[in-house]
Amino acid sequence: xxxxxxxxxxxxxxxxxxxxxxxxxxxxxxxxxxxxxxxxxxxxxxxxxxxxxxxxxxxxxxxxxxxxxxxxxxxxxxxxxxxxxxxxxxxxxxxxxxxxxxxxxxxxxxxxxxxxxxxxxxxxxxxxxxxxxxxxxxxxxxxxxxxxxxxxxxxxxxxxxxxxxxxxxxxxxxxxxxxxxxxxxxxxxxxxxxxxxxxxxxxxxxxxxxxxxxxxxxxxxxxxxxxxxxxxxxxxxxxxxxxxxxxxxxxxxxxxxxxxxxxxxxxxxxxxxxxxxxxxxxxxxxxxxxxxxxxxxxxxxxxxxxxxxxxxxxxxxxxxxxxxxxxxxxxxxxxxxxxxxxxxxxxxxxxxxxxxxxxxxxxxxxxxxxxxxxxxxxxxxxxxxxxxxxxxxxxxxxxxxxxxxxxxxxxxxxxxxxxxxxxxxxxxxxxxxxx
Length: 435
Prior knowledge:
Distance between the termini: 41 Å
Order of helices and strands: HEHHHHHEEEEEHHEEEHHEEEEE
Oligomer: single chain
CATH class of the largest domain: Alpha Beta
Structural class: alpha+beta
């Protein structure tokens, strides 16, 4: 797994020593559990739709990962916490074995939340024993698998937040995960356009870089790109309201065929979590319901909605190559999980250092690119090769991270992907156009 899953960066060097890996492991595992502190045991069992997993399942699955891919073969004295967990918490790894039917995860009242935490503690104790019992050379050999497991857990940290938001949205009481404070008012910065010349550009993760990279970010390659312009900021709620007011959801000329079909089949009238009360729009947040702020980036829209809006404006969505070119020299800073806002904010809140703002954080940005392998991509051998490669079909690429993405998790080459009708993640977009 190591040769295709990891690389290197002087800014964020990968932990490879016993002490650095131990510290990184403790930090990530503790962060996951801190995110669950505001939740009751009842909250942690609900599955509100097939794409959502119960919080309890996230806690167990991320532990299953280390048990399956590190401890079972790497620690001779290790005994699985429960023999059925190999089946119960396997998400999609066919090479590992059968999996419990995903849409039924919310039917499992047992094991209890308390028992799930005992499973986590059991795995933690053995992972730390594993690290402490190895010399530095042995640890360096398994560091790629441990690191992959920690980045995998960071993905589930984001899912814990986005999934519980959907769970609370389905509750008529609209529970509050946590008080997010008062949103800041004020208009967003004016939208301008950054121009990039036609050229051959390097795309993808550098093999000599010391920071983590998933296998789908390789190999680094050159891409010919025609001159293009990309918007300086994300599309806002206020701008999207204009699309609604102009009958955007009733006018098929703006929609791809599959998008128009789902608009009618699902009765979409606005982004997910928008609700009209007394002629005013409100939105569901992790801090409960509040009035829509026109200055904030529009969020929880599908690829179909982003694409329809872009057509309505006469622009388009950027390709993932265009997005990466624009982001290559932008500092990885913005409204991310570490800032603890848990909601997108206006450009007036975080001032950009250059011509492009909000490239990282706030919302994952839809691109016009289908999720496909890079030229020369080779799938990793074994079960871990299923991590990304098997999903390279019927998905669209998103870039940049969101307000629920850990800062250490994101980079300009990171390729996220979801089906084009997905909306429950923190998803938004910016516009692009031909130069």
